[in-house]
C-alpha cells in the first residue's frame, strides 16, 4: 500500500513538472519572448517521450517484478528534467519581466546547471542497480552491461557538467555543456544499438545445483 | 554502506563480482572458479545479496546470479582490488608457554 502511494506521488510529481514546464513555455510564448516556439516544441517532445515511457515500459517489464524499478527510474528522470526545464523557463521569464536583478543572473544560471549535473550523476550512479525485466536467456540485448556503460557515461558526464559550471566562465560552460551531454547521449544510444545488433542469448550453460 | 564494505573486503567475493561483470552465471558455474566448499560459496553469495550487490533468479533447481552494482560501488570494487584491501581474521593470541619445571 505504501509502495503504491509512493508510486502515485512520483507520478503526480512528473505530471506537475510537465504541467509547470508547459505552462511557463506557453507564458513565454504569450509575452513574445525569443525562442518561445522552441520552448513549446521542447515541452511537446518531452510530453511525447514521457507518454512513450508510460506506454512501453510497463509492457516490457511485465515479465518480472523488477519492472517497477525501471519505471520508477524513468519517472524520476522525467520529473527532474521537467522541473529543471521549468526552472530555466521561470528564471528567463523573471528576467524578461524584470523581476530578477541582472546581477543575480549568472549565479542563478550556475546554480541551476550545477544541480542538473549533480542529478545526472546521481541517475547514472543508480542506473546499473536496475534489474533486467527479462530472464537472462531471453534478453534481447545485454541489459546489465549496457546499463553499466550508460551509468558510467551519465555519472562522468554529470560530474563533468558540474565541474564545467563551477570552474569555467559562463560563455565557455554554455558551449561545453551541450557537447558533454551530447557525447553521453550518443555514446549511450550507440552502446545500446551495438548490443541489440550483436547480442545473442547465452546457450549451453552448465546446469547447477542450488547452493 | 557497511554491508557493501564488508562484502567488498573479501577477495573471493570481489572475484565473484568480477566474474559476474562479464555475464550472469549460475551458482555452479561460479563455484567452478573457486577451490572452496559449496557451503562457503553459499555464505559468500548470501553476504553479496545482503549488500544488494547481486541479484538471484531461481528457475527450477538452478540459481542464476547477476551483478547489481551502482557506479560508486563498482568504483569501490576497483579501489579495493587495486589496493588489496583484504580484511584478515584477527590473529589468535599465541598459547601461553608452559613454565619449565625443574625436576629435583
Quick recap:
The complex is a heterodimer of chains A (211) and B (104). With 211 residues, chain A is mainly α. Helix content of chain A is 76%, strand content 0%.
Counted beta strands of chain A: 0
pLDDT below 50 for ≥5 consecutive residues: which ranges of chain A?
Answer: 203-211
Structural class of chain A: mainly alpha
Provide the gyration radius of chain A in Å: 20 Å
| Count of alpha and pi helical runs of chain A | 6
Q: Strand percentage of chain A, roughly?
A: under 5%
> Which structural class matches the secondary elements of chain B?
alpha+beta
Shape label of chain A:
globular
Features:
A: 211 residues; mainly alpha; globular; disordered C terminus; B: 104 residues; alpha+beta; Arc Repressor Mutant, subunit A
Describe the structure.
The complex is a heterodimer of chains A (211) and B (104). Chain A is mainly alpha-helical and 211 residues long. Chain A folds into two domains: 92 residues; 100 residues, no CATH class. Chain A is built from six helices and no strands. In chain A, helix 3 runs antiparallel to helix 4. With 104 residues, chain B is α+β, with helices and mostly antiparallel strands. Chain B has a single domain, classed as Arc Repressor Mutant, subunit A (Orthogonal Bundle), CATH 1.10.10.10. Helices cover 48% and strands 13% of the residues of chain B. In chain B, strand 2 and strand 3 form a beta hairpin. The C terminus of chain B is likely disordered. The interface between A and B is medium-sized, with 24 and 32 residues.
Explain the layout of strands and helices.
The complex is a heterodimer of chains A (211) and B (104).
Chain A: H1 2-30, H2 36-60, H3 67-96, H4 105-126, H5 143-167, H6 170-198
Helix pairs in contact in A: 1-2, 1-3, 2-3, 3-4, 4-5, 5-6
Chain B: H1 2-8, H2 11-22, E1 25-26, H3 27-31, H4 38-50, E2 54-59, E3 62-67, H5 71-83
Antiparallel strand pairs in B: 1-3, 2-3
Amino acid at each position: 500500500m505504501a509502495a503504491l502511494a509512493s508510486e502515485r506521488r512520483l507520478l503526480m510529481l512528473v505530471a506537475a513538472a510537465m504541467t509547470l514546464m508547459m505552462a511557463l513555455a506557453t507564458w513565454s510564448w504569450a509575452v513574445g519572448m525569443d525562442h518561445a516556439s522552441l520552448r513549446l516544441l521542447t515541452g511537446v517532445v518531452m510530453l511525447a517521450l514521457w507518454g512513450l515511457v508510460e506506454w512501453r515500459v510497463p509492457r516490457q517489464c511485465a515479465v518480472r517484478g523488477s519492472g517497477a524499478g525501471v519505471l520508477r527510474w524513468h519517472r524520476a528522470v522525467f520529473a527532474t528534467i521537467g522541473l529543471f526545464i521549468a526552472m530555466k523557463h521561470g528564471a528567463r521569464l523573471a528576467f524578461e519581466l524584470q523581476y530578477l536583478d541582472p546581477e543575480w543572473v549568472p549565479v542563478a544560471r550556475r546554480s541551476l546547471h550545477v544541480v542538473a549535473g549533480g542529478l545526472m550523476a546521481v541517475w547514472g550512479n543508480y542506473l546499473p542497480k536496475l534489474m533486467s525485466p527479462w530472464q537472462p536467456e531471453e534478453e534481447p540485448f545485454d541489459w546489465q552491461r549496457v546499463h553499466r556503460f550508460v551509468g558510467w557515461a551519465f555519472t562522468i558526464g554529470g560530474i563533468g557538467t558540474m565541474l564545467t559550471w563551477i570552474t569555467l566562465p559562463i560563455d565557455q560552460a554554455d558551449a561545453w555543456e551541450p557537447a558533454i551531454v551530447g557525447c553521453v547521449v550518443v555514446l549511450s544510444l550507440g552502446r545500446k544499438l551495438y548490443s541489440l545488433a550483436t547480442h545473442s542469448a547465452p546457450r549451453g550453460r552448465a546446469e547447477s545445483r542450488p547452493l | 554502506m557497511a554491508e557493501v564494505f564488508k562484502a567488498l573486503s573479501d577477495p573471493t567475493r570481489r572475484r565473484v563480482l568480477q566474474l559476474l561483470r562479464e555475464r550472469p552465471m549460475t551458482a555452479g558455474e561460479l563455484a567452478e572458479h573457486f577451490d572452496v566448499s559449496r557451503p562457503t560459496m553459499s555464505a559468500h553469495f548470501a553476504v553479496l545479496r545482503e549488500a544488494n550487490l547481486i541479484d538471484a533468479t531461481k528457475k527450477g533447481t538452478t540459481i542464476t546470479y547477476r551483478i547489481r552494482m551502482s557506479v560508486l560501488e563498482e568504483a569501490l570494487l576497483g579501489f579495493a582490488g587495486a589496493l588489496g584491501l583484504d580484511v584478515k581474521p584477527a590473529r589468535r593470541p599465541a598459547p601461553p608457554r608452559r613454565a619449565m619445571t625443574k625436576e629435583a
